[in-house]
Write a structure and sequence with these properties.
The protein has 15 helices and 12 strands. The longest helix is centred in the first third of the chain and has 22 residues, at 2-23. Helices cover 31% and strands 15% of the residues. It has a 7-stranded mixed beta barrel. A 5-stranded mixed β-sheet has the order 9-10-8-11-12. 41% of the residues are buried. A hairpin with a 5-residue loop joins β6 and β7. By secondary structure, the protein is α+β, with helices and mostly antiparallel strands.
Length: 525
């Protein structure tokens, strides 16, 4: 009898052991807090995979990620947050939990001087004297005698009235415009900072009725661990002339400037050295910043002279270092254009973190940034982390993301930023063109794109992006109406001048940009 009982128990245990993997459901994965409005439903567009279904290709795909290096630790994506830098001012200013209030105080004389200077040369970079009030929660910070200037290229505007007019205190005609604030412009001391932050850029949501495009892009970069991205958050802005009632300019995007302090705060474990050379690269007076020509032309290579001229490669350092910086950049371009395939492959891995660059560019392409280095030779920064002509690491810094997420244009080889082949994004950026010729580099890039649209990661796919955007919009909606009487509402559309007016961000039908772009990425060859 004992033998029969033992045999019976042994048989039962054997059956249980054999069945356990298929019978026990895996734990529900933790999902990202998307701050979704409880009353909002998001269409899935397709049935999601059950968590207990095994993907037969999963092991092979994981092996590929290990072989190519997708920038993660066993599939874990580490976001880049304000806490990542351990800087009090960064954590305070770009704290997304509170919408700060900024008031610019100017005398009528100083304001009129700003207007007259705009009329004489609209792209001037002159600072004018102003006081500032910064309110956050219960704290109010007042800074006396800082600097304010106008910003923008094609988006630069006169902030009041028409050409030749001075301030009208009775019937002012306010206009949205971009501002740059330098609290320390005229006084180089800690009292003229906000918790150590000396500069902020304030951008109005030009041609973006969603009031979210650039903010979403910078946020996605950081969610994906791209620490070369700037911080940004919403703020509310007022302008007060003399003792008049402050004019409410509305909701603005407050963005971290890319400058020497930007580099300095990202030294340890990132740039490693803040004593290198920083360049702003745009489609400027010398043509595209396409890294194709090292011809020494003052319209292409110059230092930032604060003269309002957009040089194609503008050195953001002291004039005395310009010659050395220029020779370093020109040598980089000559090697980029002149090396054979094998030599280029080995060299670029020495001077650049190729994997990080390709992950950065995957975000750039996912959000539909067509006015970029690859397609239009425009809108990026380069940082060389030493002053040595040959021995350095070079980093690509993303910049200027307002014309994205379905705001599309016929530019370069593109006519549809949602459906353009991600592996053939442009023909005006030699660096990316050369990288795409190598199968292992291309696979890193493709893996990054697929990682971005993977629903499990909660990054770019529609079901993660729509609630995120709606939560942001719900926070600022009560504050949109403003005294300029411009951009008075939030609605779902791209820029009016774009060539694909059908794209939507929060409507989840077939024209949702996230849906279209995800399908394009999943079908890429």
């Amino acid at each position: 009898m004992k033998h029969r009982i033992i045999l019976f128990l042994f048989a039962v245990l054997t059956v249980i052991a054999a069945c356990t993997p298929d019978c026990i459901l895996p734990e529900e994965p933790e999902t990202e807090d998307t701050e979704q409005n409880d009353s909002t439903e998001v269409e899935t567009g397709k049935e999601e995979e059950k968590p207990d279904q095994e993907d037969p290709n999963k092991e092979e795909e994981e092996d590929k990620k290990e072989d190519t290096g997708d920038g993660t630790d066993e599939g874990i994506i580490t976001p880049f947050t304000t806490a990542s830098l351990g800087h009090e001012g960064i954590s305070y200013i770009w704290d997304e939990s509170v919408i700060p209030e900024i008031t610019i105080h100017m005398t009528s004389d100083e304001w009129n001087a700003l207007l007259k200077r705009y009329d004489k040369f609209s792209h001037n970079v002159d600072y004018f004297h102003a006081d500032f009030t910064y309110r956050k929660d219960t704290e109010t910070i007042f800074i006396e005698d800082g600097g304010v200037r106008l910003r923008g290229n094609t988006s630069r505007r006169r902030p009041e009235g028409n050409g030749g007019e001075v301030h009208d205190s009775t019937h002012p005609d306010w206009h949205h415009c971009h501002f740059g604030i330098n609290f320390r412009k005229f006084h180089k001391d800690d009292a003229h900072t906000i918790h150590g932050i000396r500069k902020v850029n304030l951008k109005w949501f030009k041609d973006d009725p969603c009031h979210v495009r650039e903010l979403y892009c910078y946020d996605l970069f950081r969610r994906y661990g791209i620490w070369t991205s700037a911080f940004s958050t919403y703020c509310r802005l007022w302008l007060q002339i003399d003792d008049e009632r402050p004019a409410y300019y509305g909701v603005y995007n407050m963005i971290e400037p890319i400058d020497d302090e930007f580099v300095e705060k990202r030294t340890a474990g990132m740039f490693e050295n803040d004593g290198g050379f920083l360049w702003k690269c745009v489609y400027g007076e010398g043509g595209m910043a396409d890294l194709r020509s090292a011809n020494d032309n003052s319209q292409r290579f110059n230092w930032d002279q604060d003269n309002g001229v957009n040089y194609s490669y503008e050195f953001k350092g002291k004039e005395k270092n310009f010659a050395a910086a220029k020779e370093q950049l020109r040598d980089f371009i000559m090697k980029l254009t002149g090396k054979g395939e094998e030599s280029f492959y080995n060299w670029i891995k020495e001077v650049c973190d190729v994997e990080f660059l390709l992950k950065t560019y995957a975000v750039n392409v996912a959000v539909g940034m067509w006015d970029d280095m690859w397609n239009n030779g425009n809108n990026y920064y380069l940082y060389f982390n030493t002053t040595d002509k040959y021995d350095y690491k070079v980093f690509f810094l993303p910049y200027d993301y307002d014309n994205t997420l379905g705001t599309s244009s016929s530019c370069g080889i593109q006519s549809d930023a949602g459906r353009q082949d991600p592996c053939n994004w442009g023909d005006s950026g030699l660096l990316m063109e050369r990288l795409m010729k190598f199968d292992d580099f291309k696979q890193i890039y493709k893996n990054a794109l697929l990682e971005l649209v993977d629903p499990a990661n909660g990054l770019f796919n529609m079901n993660a992006s729509v609630p995120r955007i709606q939560a942001w919009q719900n926070r600022i909606r009560p504050y949109i109406s403003n005294d300029t009487e411009e951009d008075m509402s939030i609605y779902d559309a791209p820029a009016y001048w774009g060539n694909h007016s059908e794209y939507r961000l929060t409507s989840t039908g077939s024209d949702n940009f996230f849906r279209v772009k995800t399908e394009t990425i999943n079908n890429m060859q």
